[in-house]
Amino acid sequence: MKIAIILMIGSILIGLSACSSTGPVLYPNTHFLSVGKDSAEQDIEVCKQLAESAGAREGKGQMGDVATSTAMGAGVGAASGAAGGAIRGSAGQGSLIGAAAGATAGLLRGIFFSTRSSQPSQAYANFVSRCLKEKGYEVTGWQ
């Protein structure tokens, strides 16, 4: 039971961190149409890598916020549960129950009350957009 709770929390955090990437939306101008979607996707990746190497960071976006909120909830819940469990004589079990409850509360808080946008940092988006423009693409936005 204890291991199942820990594994469940870990899988939620891994799943959320995998969903945090955004990317530019390209207008199908003559350059885009001449090179094709596959080549455009490769150019996007090259520009993203250039942005990272120049020091611009994508940022974690909303899913990263949800993962952080979940982890913080688990930590607070574990501490609270351990304190409550110690009073009743079962700190270990109390901390596991508290961690599960805290992670659930943190997950729900992160999903429903996150105020940050899932957009990348301004510097990163500007860098990638300029790189793509210099290659002949037109970036219409990010999503």
Describe what you observe in this structure.
The protein is mainly α and 143 residues long. It has one domain. The protein is built from six helices and two strands, in the order H-E-H-H-H-H-H-E. The chain has helices at residues 2-17, 30-35, 37-53, 61-88, 91-113, 122-134, and strands at 24-27, 138-142. A two-stranded antiparallel ribbon has the order 1-2. Helix 3 packs across helix 6 (122-134).
What's the domain count?
A: 1
C-alpha termini separation: 39 Å
Stretches where pLDDT is under 50 for at least 5 consecutive residues are 13-18
Can you list the strand order of the major beta sheet?
A: 1-2
Portion in helices: over 70%
Can you give the mean pLDDT?
77
What structural class should be given to the helix and strand makeup?
Answer: mainly alpha
Number of strands: 2
Overall body shape? rod-shaped
Beta content comes to 5-15%
User: Strand-and-helix sequence, N→C?
Assistant: HEHHHHHE
CA radius of gyration:
21 Å
Largest pleated sheet = 2 strands, antiparallel
Q: What is the overall number of helices?
A: 6
